[in-house]
């Protein structure tokens, strides 16, 4: 008779949760409504990022990483002022606070 320890039960449970959430994430990732809603106005950034991944897989890593970086910056350029604004308000260091507030600029997501 095989005895199952408590550690093995915890491992099986954790693995089960992990597999469930990975499959649920894949299901949500490929939902056509969410894809159309989220990426329609960000087609250029998405194309550059995924093109960079393909270029890296084709053994041109430097060019691929540059394309991925440009795509990443294109995708999240509207979110950077929000991050810099939060960091400027959250940090108590005078120099960094002034720097982050200057980087925040006038544009915001709201």
UniProtKB/TrEMBL annotation:
GO terms for biological process: endoplasmic reticulum to Golgi vesicle-mediated transport; retrograde transport, endosome to Golgi. One of its GO terms (cellular component) is cytosol. The chain crosses the membrane at residues 17-36, 48-67, 79-100. InterPro entries: Got1 (IPR045176). The keyword Iron does not apply. Keywords: Membrane, Transmembrane, Transmembrane helix. This is Vesicle transport protein GOT1A isoform X4. It comes from Acinonyx jubatus (Cheetah). The gene is GOLT1A.
């Amino acid at each position: 008779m095989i005895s199952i320890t408590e550690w093995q039960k915890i491992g099986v449970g954790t693995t089960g949760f992990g597999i469930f959430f990975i499959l649920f994430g894949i299901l949500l990732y490929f939902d056509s409504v969410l894809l159309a809603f989220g990426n329609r106005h960000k087609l250029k950034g998405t194309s550059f990022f995924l093109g960079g991944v393909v270029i890296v897989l084709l053994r041109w890593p430097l060019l691929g990483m540059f394309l991925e970086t440009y795509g990443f910056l294109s995708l999240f350029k509207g979110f950077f002022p929000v991050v810099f604004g939060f960091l400027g308000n959250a940090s108590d260091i005078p120099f960094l606070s002034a720097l982050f507030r200057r980087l925040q600029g006038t544009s915001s997501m709201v």
